[in-house]
Design brief:
The chain is mostly helical. The chain is built from 23 helices and no strands. The protein starts with a helix and ends in a 5-residue tail after the last helix. The model is unreliable at 1-50, 52-62 and 392-400 (pLDDT under 50).
């Protein structure tokens, strides 16, 4: 109870510390200056000579400029502080992880109900930044969703299996490693995409697609790669996806549409909910298996680090090489790197007999969050050039193969 009281007391300060900056032209109201005629500025002596009263008016007009109000000054100071705090997002993850490892009981109060509520709050905080038009735009070009689905359920499971065997992990740890590679994208990826100036609507659709895909892809991949049957509650996953992902997003979008003034007022604090929720989710999962994580050593830590780092790297370079835009590629990189490790931990706990199989998922929670947050912060300060198209399709960059034209080029003939 003491720890809960401390957390509740700290929430106001966390709001001020974690909230990222928003464009000033959306939130800061600049006072309108009085209009000064060109004549009164260019020839003040002539104006004064003709009419002394006009000279007095001119003097008052040119010097009586409204000063910034206290609220504006405070908001500017808050904005600068928030920029620094957002840049240190990976540090908050490390701090919460350290507390969870040192004192696991500190997060014993964060039960499954709180866990689910935190995920829902994370999605709601992203939902108020979106509109139906964002999803229509994404749905009109589904190639990026298909690409990321392939990265999630083809590249990542194979990479996890390869790394596990390369580092000679025990069978139980190898099973847990493959399970991490075979699960869906994590909800925290939506927050990191938002910070990285990626496409949040695209990230949400990717998360939803891979989460629904986990109903059949995760058991299938575990069976193919491990020879083990991992029963997955399809109805439960679908229900959880609706409750935790789709419903909060829909509520946020509806609020944005019908109560825009209210949304504008709370928008600066929306990412705060996401950051605090993410830190609590990471700390809770780590606290549950703190001892096995500390006992695992670098023989397990390194392959899991590489899984998320290489996953993010391939998730960015492959889309860029095949014609996707910078924004879409950043989104896919974060979505591919950030797996739903908490869900993997739950599956391992429920369906894998050996307790050691849970450890890779718990370790993955830490490195997944760190990798995603670091990518988000780096890309936050790398500008994105405006592209003429939402996403270049593969056909636009790589037209259909024409054997005659290809043979003619090889023979040195012109078209």
């Amino acid at each position: 109870m003491r720890f809960q009281a401390i957390i509740l007391c700290m929430l106001p300060s966390l709001v001020g510390a974690f909230a990222p900056a928003f464009p000033q032209n959306r939130l800061i109201v600049t006072p309108t200056l009085p209009k000064i005629s060109h004549f009164s500025i260019s020839a003040p002596n002539v104006s004064a000579a003709r009419d002394p009263k006009s000279a007095l008016c001119m003097s008052a007009t040119s010097t009586d400029i409204p000063e910034e109000g206290l609220g504006t000054k405070i908001f500017k100071a808050y904005t600068k502080t928030a920029n620094v705090a957002t840049t240190l997002f990976p540090l908050w993850t490390v701090l919460f992880t350290g507390v969870a490892l040192k004192s696991p009981s500190s997060f014993a109060w964060f039960t499954t109900d709180y866990f689910t509520a935190a995920l829902a709050a994370l999605m709601l905080s992203m939902g108020i930044t979106l509109s139906p038009a964002d999803f229509v735009k994404v749905a009109s070009r589904p190639n990026s969703v298909i690409m990321q689905f392939s990265l999630c359920y083809a590249m990542m499971p194979i990479l996890a299996l390869g790394l596990g065997k390369a580092f000679a992990l025990d069978p139980a740890l190898l099973a847990g490693m493959v399970l991490v590679g075979s699960i869906n994208g994590g909800q925290a990826s939506n927050l990191c995409t938002y910070i990285a100036k990626g496409n949040v609507a695209l990230s949400v659709l990717m998360t939803t697609a891979t989460t629904l895909g986990a109903i059949f892809m995760t058991p299938l991949l575990c069976q193919l790669l491990l020879g083990a049957v991992v029963p997955v509650d399809a109805t439960g996953i679908a229900k959880s996806t609706i409750q935790v992902v789709l419903a909060p997003i829909a509520i946020g979008m509806t609020t944005n549409k019908f109560f825009p003034k209210f949304v504008k007022a709370i928008l600066p604090f929306a990412p705060v909910v996401g950051v605090v929720s993410t830190c609590l989710l990471v700390a809770s999962a780590v606290a549950q298996v703190a001892e096995p994580i500390l006992a695992a050593g670098w023989s397990l830590q390194i392959p899991i680090i590489l899984l998320h780092l290489l996953g993010g790297l391939v998730g960015y370079l492959l889309p860029r090489a095949t014609g996707f835009s910078e924004v879409a590629s950043r989104t896919m990189a974060i979505e591919t790197s950030m797996k739903s490790s908490a869900f993997g931990f739950l599956l391992a706990k429920l369906h894998f007999g050996d307790a050691a199989a849970r450890v890779p998922a718990a370790v993955s929670v830490v490195w997944m969050a760190l990798t995603g947050s670091i990518l988000a912060v780096i890309w936050r300060y790398i500008p994105v050039g405006k592209s003429k198209t939402f996403d270049r399709s593969l056909v636009e960059k790589y037209p259909p193969f024409n054997p005659k034209k290809t043979f003619a080029k090889l023979m040195g003939k012109k078209d």
